[in-house]
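Holo prediction — zinc ion.
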Amino acid sequence: MCHTDVHFVKEGLAPYPLTPGHELAGVVTKVGRNVTKLRVGDAVAVGCMVDSCFGCRSCRAYEEQYCLNGAVWTYGGETKYGRAGPDGERTRGGYSDAFVANQRFCFKLPPESLPKTRGDEDASKTTDTKSSLAKYAPLLCAGVTTFDPLVRYGCLDGRKRVGVAGFGGLGMMATKLARAMRCDVVALSSSPDKEPAARRMGASEFWVTTDAEAMKEKAEAVKAQKLTHTKRDAAVYGWQHPDPPPAGSASDSDEATISDDRVSLDVILDTVSAPHDVAALVDLLAPDGTLVLLGLDARPFALAANALVFSRKVVRGSLIAGTKSTEACLEFCVKHGVFPDVRVIDAAKAADALKALDKKNDAAVRYVIDCETIPKRAKRSAAA
Ligand SMILES: [Zn+2]
Ligand SMILES: [Zn+2]
């Protein structure tokens, strides 16, 4: 379950009836004749989109989320390219017991994610069934949405100071991913209660954004800090300083770490989807730093040109990830064991979980619905 689901349900962003859910994991039960990527019995995941035009500049670069003709979202989207149902219908999402998608938008999961239920009819099977697939599902939205900008803005090599603003589902994944990339992570949240969870997931610092005094201090420290030349900085700027660094200085070492007294952040992933002080976050960026807006909020915010111009800072947006980047994300997460903290719930508890998400997700977990608990209609026709 994603915070987007709350927006759709509460704000009626798509016509009723609505079936939310765009982080799906399951097992393949049927494949079409032209399917080459998957076989019956494979574990599979589907994310936030199920079709796009395949022909535009974005689609040809496997960035289907930016399809110039409009991607078809997994739920509440209008079908128009024929691969997600007949044209002119509305897509239905993952809170369902069966799902059909084009193979381009399906991602094979490793065999260890498969539910271990083969023939075992004992009571212990349910836990396994739930936990094995459940931790993969949230990678398809929360995971890829934070992985893609981290890679794109240079965090994969580590040694960056990454700020993560907002500590919900996206913030948790951003923290785990940036840490797995060996970056230094600063969690920024309005809820001081989330500090233990943030630290457990890899944040080395936790800044409370509602503590105006403390935030002002940080911004002033950023302004006052003298950035000495290091190899890391040289890499950031893409050039080498002509003077050799003083012998024996930290900058002389290839192992330049981020343990210096630097306060500023190279990249901030801003996952907050409510009105907040974006300018205050920009003040925390290092020169050439990038703030990436990931939360959806239609209301405008104020930002002075000076805040960007004097140190070439960038504010940009980013939306989920394309299919190639999604594959890279899954590969990275499996290799490094990066998975969200999940809580598997029965379908009957979905409304309660949406309410919890609408507050501040204080549980610091990603809720995952066990779709086997969706009541089956008597003798429904086979899902096709
Ligand atoms: Zn989502
Ligand atoms: Zn396209």
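READOUT: The first strand starts at residue 24 and ends at 27.
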